[in-house]
Amino acid sequence: MVLYGSCTSQTHVTRNYPLILAGGSNLGIKHGQYRQFSEEIPLSNLYLAMLQKMGVPVDSFKDSTGPMPEILS
Protein backbone atom coordinates (compact mmCIF):
# COMPACT_ATOMS: atom_id res chain seq x y z
CA MET A 1 0.00 0.00 0.00
CA VAL A 2 1.08 3.54 -0.71
CA LEU A 3 -0.61 6.56 0.84
CA TYR A 4 0.08 9.90 -0.80
CA GLY A 5 -1.15 13.18 0.59
CA SER A 6 -0.47 16.82 0.15
CA CYS A 7 -1.12 19.84 2.29
CA THR A 8 -2.96 22.46 0.29
CA SER A 9 -3.38 25.03 3.01
CA GLN A 10 -1.26 28.12 3.44
CA THR A 11 -2.55 28.52 7.00
CA HIS A 12 -1.30 25.15 8.35
CA VAL A 13 -4.85 24.00 9.08
CA THR A 14 -4.73 20.21 9.37
CA ARG A 15 -8.10 19.49 7.70
CA ASN A 16 -9.44 18.60 4.32
CA TYR A 17 -6.28 17.18 2.76
CA PRO A 18 -6.51 15.29 -0.52
CA LEU A 19 -5.17 11.74 -0.14
CA ILE A 20 -4.56 8.89 -2.57
CA LEU A 21 -4.39 5.31 -1.33
CA ALA A 22 -2.97 2.86 -3.87
CA GLY A 23 -2.46 -0.86 -3.56
CA GLY A 24 -3.75 -3.24 -0.96
CA SER A 25 -6.60 -4.67 -3.00
CA ASN A 26 -5.32 -8.20 -2.27
CA LEU A 27 -5.43 -7.26 1.42
CA GLY A 28 -9.07 -6.17 1.25
CA ILE A 29 -8.85 -2.46 0.45
CA LYS A 30 -11.52 -1.13 -1.95
CA HIS A 31 -10.28 1.17 -4.71
CA GLY A 32 -11.71 3.06 -7.64
CA GLN A 33 -13.81 5.46 -5.62
CA TYR A 34 -13.79 9.05 -4.47
CA ARG A 35 -14.69 9.41 -0.81
CA GLN A 36 -15.21 12.51 1.27
CA PHE A 37 -15.40 12.07 5.04
CA SER A 38 -16.65 14.42 7.70
CA GLU A 39 -14.16 16.26 9.87
CA GLU A 40 -15.27 14.18 12.86
CA ILE A 41 -13.55 11.09 11.42
CA PRO A 42 -9.86 11.18 12.36
CA LEU A 43 -7.20 10.38 9.77
CA SER A 44 -5.80 7.87 12.26
CA ASN A 45 -8.81 5.65 11.40
CA LEU A 46 -7.32 5.22 7.93
CA TYR A 47 -3.91 4.44 9.39
CA LEU A 48 -5.50 1.89 11.74
CA ALA A 49 -7.29 0.15 8.85
CA MET A 50 -4.06 0.03 6.85
CA LEU A 51 -2.07 -1.39 9.77
CA GLN A 52 -4.68 -4.06 10.49
CA LYS A 53 -4.84 -5.13 6.84
CA MET A 54 -1.04 -5.49 6.82
CA GLY A 55 -1.29 -7.86 9.76
CA VAL A 56 -0.11 -5.53 12.53
CA PRO A 57 -1.93 -6.58 15.73
CA VAL A 58 -3.25 -3.19 16.89
CA ASP A 59 -6.67 -2.17 18.19
CA SER A 60 -6.09 1.58 18.04
CA PHE A 61 -3.71 4.15 16.61
CA LYS A 62 -3.34 7.58 18.21
CA ASP A 63 -6.86 9.10 18.40
CA SER A 64 -8.57 6.52 16.16
CA THR A 65 -12.14 5.52 16.83
CA GLY A 66 -11.93 2.34 14.71
CA PRO A 67 -10.93 1.20 11.22
CA MET A 68 -12.74 2.72 8.24
CA PRO A 69 -15.29 0.15 7.02
CA GLU A 70 -16.00 2.36 3.97
CA ILE A 71 -12.67 1.41 2.41
CA LEU A 72 -12.59 -2.25 3.49
CA SER A 73 -13.97 -5.04 1.35
Describe this structure in words.
- With 73 residues, the protein is mostly loops.
- It has one domain (1-73).
- It is 14% helix and 11% strand.
- It has one helix spanning 44-53, and strands spanning 2-5, 19-22.
- The protein has a two-stranded antiparallel sheet with strand order 1-2.
- The longest helix is centred in the middle third of the chain and has 10 residues, at 44-53.
- It is globular, with a radius of gyration of 13 Å.
Form type = globular
Whole-number total of structural domains = 1
Low-confidence stretches: none
Oligomer: single chain
What's the number of extended β-strand segments?
Answer: 2
Helical proportion, percent range: 10-25%
Strand content: 5-15%
**Pattern of helices and strands:** EEH
Q: How are the strands ordered across the major sheet?
A: 1-2
Largest sheet: 2 strands, antiparallel
- Report how far the terminal alpha carbons are from each other: 15 Å
Rg (C-alpha, Å): 13 Å
Structural class: little secondary structure
Averaged pLDDT? 87
Tally of DSSP helical segments: 1
Structural descriptors:
73 residues; little secondary structure; two-stranded antiparallel ribbon; 14% helix
Short description:
Helix content is 14%, strand content 11%.
Q: What is the secondary structure topology, with strand pairs?
A:
Blueprint: E1 2-5, E2 19-22, H1 44-53
Antiparallel strand pairs: 1-2
